[in-house]
Write a structure and sequence with these properties.
By secondary structure, the protein is mostly helical. It has 15 helices and 8 strands.
Amino acid sequence: MGASMASRILSAGYTLIVYARTPEKAIWLQDLGAHLANSPADVARTSDVVFTMIGRPSDVRSVVLGNDGVLAGLKKGGVIVDTTSSCPVLAREIATAASARGCWAVDAPVSGGDIGARDGKLAIFAGGDDGVVNWLSPLFEIMGRATYVGKAGCGQSCKIANQITVGSNLVGLSEGLVFAGQAGLDLKRFVEAIQGGAAGSMVMELFGERMIERDFKAGGFAEYIVKDLGMGLDGVEDNVVVLPGAALAKQLFSGMVANGDGKLGIQGLITVTERINGK
């Protein structure tokens, strides 16, 4: 997703400097005109705005707060925008550290998968200073639609709630498809029939056909939604939130990981439902 987002910024005419922990992943962006840097700090030293899209909160901490991280190189007045699905507490820690350096931090995780990233139709959940979020609007509009959801950390909380909703939708879609298949229905006609009714959803639009066609290429890894759901189940700060549906979804996605499918896309959840039913 990060590469697709970066390519859209390039296509809009912005100068882009890229650091990738696996350099081979950035070669095609270099071919499009991006400049490659040797570290996150090097990116920050020559940039006004730095976007990060990584994997896990531990990666975010290293890339942003590490000795050679973004904040080590970001100039006064610069902005770090973390689009990773990460932890609200860490987002607030980054905002505090950025403020101490005279910089700004926005947590802006995204939803919409690889197709949304490619087409510039991501939903972006922005937390931080509302004036800074508004100032970033021209960049956000290249990637999708940003909604300001509150102070630092609120973007990450919104993404966790989003993943709870997406996970439950995928459980329902997987079970609906397996049931329809067992009942002898044509699966494409089944999806076409229910798409316009109450069962229709963006999850169905994004993943229904992929599930039917057995296209499990990852836009977002299954192992990452296990991480996201886990953050929700851990509660909000010291407040415990009882989420039985999210707990079930996490168990099912964990089943994907246990089956060796953690690097598949989240639409691969249907394989777990199929295994439970002996398919």
